[in-house]
Amino acid sequence: MKLVVEKITGEHNHYTIGSEDWVPFPERSVDFSARLTITVYRQTDESVVLEGMFEGDWTVSCDRCGEPVQHGLSGDFSYQGISPGETVFETGEKEVLAEDVNILYLEEPFIDLFEILQEQVYLALPVRVLCSEDCKGICPQCGVTLNDADCRCLSDRADSPFAVLKKICK
Question: InterPro entries from the xrefs (predicted)?
Answer without folding.
Answer: YceD (IPR003772)
